[in-house]
């Protein structure tokens, strides 16, 4: 008997989800969200972001939240850091697990990071270096890996080059973000094949797909068929980038878990507990959430 | 150079879509919908249903609609017929292409057809016999092929047995309906493998998946990987069964076409024209429609 296949889901709702919401949750509500997610079985929860509070006021309480967070044993709580200053703030607040991000495309880099792609990458690599020196776990996130709404299709080679630099600098793993959700399973395959050809193992790659065009879950299926074991998702499908107009809707965690449950792939997650948390979250945010399985389970 | 792979999409919005809507469209609006669909490249459009007008008042104008329909050359306009009386009405109205349906599960058969599964199948086979004798093209639809909300999982063997009976009776092809959208890619594979093992070729099978749990497109991907070349979809994701509470949301045509376009698989459809029709349809129905790609394209 072979061991059951396992996929690790990184729950991004507390950060990538909440950063794009009109309504800002209280620190208490965020802590409750994170506790509920851990209770549903999550072992990797992107807790918050140390970006500038003026850019993302929804997450201005990052330091307070991290300070008050009751860490459940066996659960990782990565936080996003945009630059060295953000890294310092994160470390001061007790972070031991961070994510650094760049854009694979020029236009989004300028809009989101106020710097061109090459310059932003050098800055990010410096942050990776400092974080790994400080003993932190580091993930390297690349966004717009399939296309950019202004620049058009992204060359997979560009994404691979960024990934190699991230790994060389000491990143533990990579996240490939199709920020605008243009990608189909063919794009996912092409991208992963390019990484494999460059010697980057599938076990070091996480897929971060959006459901803007309804393609998220099909892309995850394609990735899993190629050996991917790390997937980003957000309960109820909340979130997206406040800087990319077309980036509505992360892939809903419950939709992913429903699929993986049905395929006999273990996630350690309880889809009904997740759906209950989505229902609670919809109440907190004052809007209906787009994820399908949660609606069906709560309906 | 090999020929480009092709997938035929059967557009079900005029029938399966509209039958579940609160608002009943005028015959004119339905004819405009069908004309728009053909203009976007559809070559198979489920036009209406000859079920009892008291059961589905939204489609009470079936005979008038079919009589007034301007048939575009190269386009099929199948209609649903529930029984011999419906078949007679359809033939009298000019139908030359019909679909006959049964449920693979007992409870849904009783709720939807007021008859047990076995009895309903015998009735359906008699309709298939009369329709083929009259020279009509006939599709055999089986619903609840993955699970039934009251009975639980459906045995793939049951679905295959129904399919074999349908084909023996003269059906040209089969439609496998996961009416409640429970199915994951693993279910699709299991079901198709069971059909292949029974000697039913993939070219005779159409997949009719629902997006209730967000699984529709991933299931289509799994089916296409196994050789399926016929997929049912509904613009904007409108529709579902008015008799099955949990059956919200057909798979949106634009989401399927976006995926197939990206995978280099031909459908003959113009996704932007489809999205424009979805926008118009949302206005006609007075509600926002759930399909993702149309929202993104219209947004």
Would you give an account of this structure?
The structure is a homodimer of 299-residue chains. Chain A has 299 residues and is of the alpha/beta class. Chain A has a single domain, classed as TIM Barrel (Alpha-Beta Barrel). Helices cover 43% and strands 14% of the residues of chain A. In chain A, strand 2, helix 3 and strand 3 form a beta-alpha-beta unit. In chain A, helix 10 packs antiparallel against helix 11. The N and C termini of chain A lie far apart (38 Å). About 2% of the residues of chain A have low confidence.
Question: How would you summarize what this structure contains?
Answer:
2 copies of one chain form a homodimer. Chain A is globular and about 45 Å long.
Question: What labels would you give this structure?
Answer:
299 residues, TIM Barrel, 8-stranded parallel β-sheet, alpha/beta, 43% helix, homodimer
Set out the fold topology:
The structure is a homodimer of 299-residue chains.
Chain A: E1 8-11, H1 13-17, H2 27-39, E2 48-49, H3 62-68, E3 79-81, H4 84-92, E4 97-103, H5 106-113, H6 117-133, E5 137-143, E6 147-148, E7 152-153, H7 156-169, E8 173-178, H8 185-197, E9 205-209, H9 216-225, E10 230-233, H10 253-262, H11 271-285, H12 292-298
Parallel strand pairs in A: 1-10, 2-3, 3-4, 4-5, 5-8, 8-9, 9-10
Antiparallel strand pairs in A: 6-7
